[in-house]
Amino acid sequence: MYHSLIIMVIVVKYFASISDAVGKTSEKIVLQHEMTVGEVWTDVSKNIKYAGKVMTAVNHEYVDENYLLRDEDEVAFFPPVTGG
Amino acid sequence: MYHSLIIMVIVVKYFASISDAVGKTSEKIVLQHEMTVGEVWTDVSKNIKYAGKVMTAVNHEYVDENYLLRDEDEVAFFPPVTGG
Amino acid sequence: MYIEIINEEFDPWQKLVDYKKSQLKDRKNIGACSVFLGTMRDINSGDEIKSMELQHYPEMTESYLEKISENTIKKYKIIDTIILHRVGLVSPSDPIVLVATWSEHREDAFEATREIMEALKSEAPFWKKESTDKGFRWVEPQAEISEDMNEV
Amino acid sequence: MYIEIINEEFDPWQKLVDYKKSQLKDRKNIGACSVFLGTMRDINSGDEIKSMELQHYPEMTESYLEKISENTIKKYKIIDTIILHRVGLVSPSDPIVLVATWSEHREDAFEATREIMEALKSEAPFWKKESTDKGFRWVEPQAEISEDMNEV
Predict the structure, then answer these.
(1) Minimal Cα–Cα distance from C88 to chain D, Å?
(2) pLDDT for res C46
(3) Domain holding C36: CATH number?
(4) What's the pLDDT band for C147 if we cut at 50, 70, 90?
(5) Angle made by CA atoms D100, D123, D81, in degrees to the nearest 5
(6) ipTM score
(7) Which of A52, C51, C101, D77 is the most buried (most CB within 10 A)?
(8) Could you list the residue range(s) of the whole structural domain that residue B45 is in?
(9) C37 and D32 in contact by Cβ < 8 A?
């Protein structure tokens, strides 16, 4: 039996103060194994200073930290919204 | 001692369905003794058919049936309002 | 604060824009404006309404609309209010009432506009007489009248 | 139902009048229209705001505003809704958001406009960055975010 090799590519978008903290507005990330949205955030935020709340969306829908990512997902990290 | 003679003149206004029922929009009434708004309504409505609710105002303020009229008061009788 | 009883068809949005421009031009603390527009429907209680006559009690109406505005301004944090109300012969789709309030924050404007409308509906002396195929009829109020409205 | 994200200054009342004329001209069952207009204040958290940058997440914003409108139309007896929202560089007094709903009776329009605004405030991905004498700052949300908004 073969151990299946998972390679997924996701797009990550950052907005508002999180974009400022990360220093970019979007990037492509290659996942070597299955990851949740929360695990991706831990990864991308490990070298930044950001103490506020983080909202997460996948493919333009709010999701929670346990959402398991799939190939070609568009993930977004942003602070609580302030429109209106 | 004299028994004082009270003569007061009030203006009575009628609106909407009450004006239709009474057949006039306003009249002057001479009161020979003190009367409440309720007593005036009993008087002016004794020969008409009007089964609905009656609202009462004196000098452009809502009052209840026990309001004691004074000379030159403007009394109004009208059905519940339906503006807006 | 502005109140107007209008005896002919009017453009509610133009009135609103004109008032804002002339009276509230320099109020840069305005963050919210809540507006309600009531218009005449062509159907009521299942019948087609051809037109409607809006009667009122002029002196009392003006004074009640002022009172309603003042009470609302006291209760909420309101920068300004306007109430426009049509009287006379009204046709379907015509504007009947416009209420607008301006405030810093949205809650005040939302609450104030709604309370003005509810108070106007139960207190301001206006009466509607509809013209249908079956003849004329006075409109009956929808809800119970409020408790401070005394009856004979 | 109409939704527009606008990248320049706009006249909310003209937009409203134009939409009403082109899309709701023959809807003679409209009895109520409730409108909310949010405008930019020149003071926030005690500081003078010179201007503001409104950022958004385009695809998600559009889809959320549609979702909010649809949910509201399902919940109340609503004839139509519009939501206009500004993005880009905004100056004090500029319109930011216009929400309007039309219905037969006033309760539906009042409730619907307010609910759309509350949902927009807590769900639609817009962010405000203010420019003050002390520099730029991202605006913090006022209230607790609603429970269906999950956080990492």
Answers:
(1) 18
(2) 87
(3) 3.90.1170.40
(4) very low
(5) 20
(6) 0.92
(7) C101
(8) 21-78
(9) yes
